[in-house]
Amino acid sequence: MTASRSPRRAALAVAALVAALALSACGGSAAPSTPSTDPVSGGTLTFGRVASANDLDLHQQITANNAFAIDKVFEPLVAFDEQGEIGPWLADYEVSDDGLEYVFTLRDGLQFSDGSDVVPEDVVFSLNRHLELGGPLPLEAPIASIEASGDREVTIALSGPYTPFLSELASFSNGILPADFGGASEEEFFERPIGTGPFAVSEWDPNGDLVFVKNTHYWQEGKPYLDSLVYRFVADDTQLRQQLQAGQIDAIDTVPATNAAEIGATGGTVLSETPGWSTEQVFFNTQREEFADVHVRRAIAQALDRDGITEATTFGTAEVANALLPPTITYSADDSVEALEYDPEAARAELAESAYPDGFEVTLLIASGNAQRAQIAQIVQESLAKIGITVEIEQLDIAVFRERFFAYDFDFMLNSGQSDAPDPNGFITFQADPEGFSKSYWTHYTNERVTELMHEGRTTPAGAGREAIYGEIQQILADEVPYIPLFFPANLKATSEAVQGFAVLPNGSVRFQDVWLSEGA
């Protein structure tokens, strides 16, 4: 059986449909308030974030604190819109009938932020560098060649079929930079990077704030509207909200679910709530002998009331998760997967089949400054105590938290999985590929059948066959629970009433080229 469903699922689906009808691909605005006048150019917007950007190398980064700064500077050939639909961005494209050749034609007059022309050689250099480095979001497609095939044309040939290729290219990690770093050293370049994005870096403290200025050579006529954009580092989400309400900042990247209704009802502030591509989860380090035991993991899954956790900690802003993939991702099996139900008696029986029938002591790792995860951690602690598992909660600064799990130095943790594209391949690969960058999201989980299916999913054409592949993967993961999906959170952000055109993408990034400040702000 699956967990009970909330009526909110239908509401989000209706909202997404309305948005899809109202917005045109790659050019729409999901503003929380409807502007009564045409966009106004000028001004500075200060955006509060709970983590600073500490590295702008697009091929080496993955976490949101860096990714959503990088994508203001660099842009890919294709991109997805607010509904997750992929279309042309820096280039139009044509695909051969056999799906093995992609010809991209760069926009006429395309320039970098320093005023230099973007030429095919820049595309070749950028994508080849990504291929060579690999990085956390590697180009997995079987690329045989990348060639400049005309004055504005680049041809990419594949050695075999690869269904998610365009989805993969749409990632921020495939942005275009000048060939040979424009003559700078690699280190110098990424201190003040040059790209085609709407903004350029002006001032940057890797442990603090990041100041962007308008790219006056941006290819979208009249955009960005803002003269400058400031990423203000505020370590605590409570302080973020307080500074927004006090008028010290104009928008915030994170709204705790417990405060969403308050933000929406408070004069002077506007709540932005949109469907996303993330899943809040409990992750097990299967290198720990306790969590290498599938009976232990299954017991914990049955000891946790996902419905209760979701209701208590998300205040109607999230959906209970059965499967790994959010419903907004193609081939999500959330409505068909048979997830382990909340059943304390079954949990005790499952634990009795493990090598630890009398329980054990373990540490749950969480990032500090996140009230929601602190509450979830307490619920996990109390729930597992009832089946004989003693949990110590360890809270760390988010930077140290990341260092710890990147080094596999944890027992189990609370974190979220985030897709960077609408195709299921990226999410599944990052969380279930034992040979990938994250080694199954730092769990070291390995299942030969999942690995086999994962590779089949990349080459199977879109349709029922591919859907069945991802359905089977999600069911295996639900049975073996290397991680426990808890809920699918909405993207919750907030702005002052002066902020217009605030469009949030499903991955949680904001298209600030569309944002403007109403007069008098």
Automatic annotation (TrEMBL):
The keyword Repeat does not apply. It comes from Leucobacter allii. Residues 85-433 form the Solute-binding protein family domain. Belongs to the bacterial solute-binding protein 5 family. PROSITE patterns: PROKAR_LIPOPROTEIN (PS51257). Keywords: Signal, Transport. Residues 1-30 form the signal peptide. The keyword DNA repair does not apply. This is ABC transporter substrate-binding protein.
